[in-house]
Design goal:
276 residues, alpha/beta, 7-stranded parallel sheet, 16% strand
Length: 276
Amino acid sequence: MEDFSNNDSKYLNGKFALVTGASRGIGRGIALKLAAKGVKVAVNYLKDEAAANDTLSKIKALGSDGFLVQADVSKPADIERMIGTVREKFGVLDIFVSNALGDLLGFMSPPLQVSLAQFDEAFHVQSRAFLVGVQNVSSLLKDGGRIIIISYWPGSQCGGFLSYFSMGTNKAAQEAMSRYFAVAFAPRGITVNTICAGITDDSIVNSLPKEAQDAMLDCLKQGWNPMKKAGTPADIGGAVAALCIDDAGWITGQTIVADGGAKLMNSEVPLFFQLP
């Protein structure tokens, strides 16, 4: 298990969070990092209750608490029920993290071949889920709260990964939505930001064929990520926790890339021209 307890002064002690898709991967990393800082976490999951229970057990081992809430974020009624449960259990909310991914491998298809059913599935679990989630959580969030969406910069800003079309375009929409939400919530001191996670171990990446995983990691180790390694769920959780501190209250409407510097590399220039 990763160490989520380093430098874990409870500077977010007494706060409440809802993290969607928190049973495993990046969502679990976010939930555990927040728990290590003193946050009580509502752990949303879709199907894998055992994995969600494991996340909750780890939250309690870190000295915090929380509860499980099953919901399919592609269904507005489920989102409303989920947030209603959070209202009953917590009463208020300080942090809302929209992370649930959906069946990414099921709607991966190039733009000229993608079916409307595949695109609709991505839309329902991404853009629409974020809109419905924020609208429903608005009255539950305390003034000065935090809303954070998890995205992927190469998917939303580039175009070379053709099979990522449905997810990438919806991630771009979510990033735009976060800027509009940032303005709408500004009078209440609620910040809205996007964190773009780079290639992360123990995430959806591990669902890809082994040869694809190995090729991606090899690219990172060659130096296309200057830190020469994949990120971890704890790394992304740390970025989320950093945005949740009081001193981050002047940061809103931003897209922050947490990728170990991979975005800094120039794909047009050979690595030996770039690396020290």
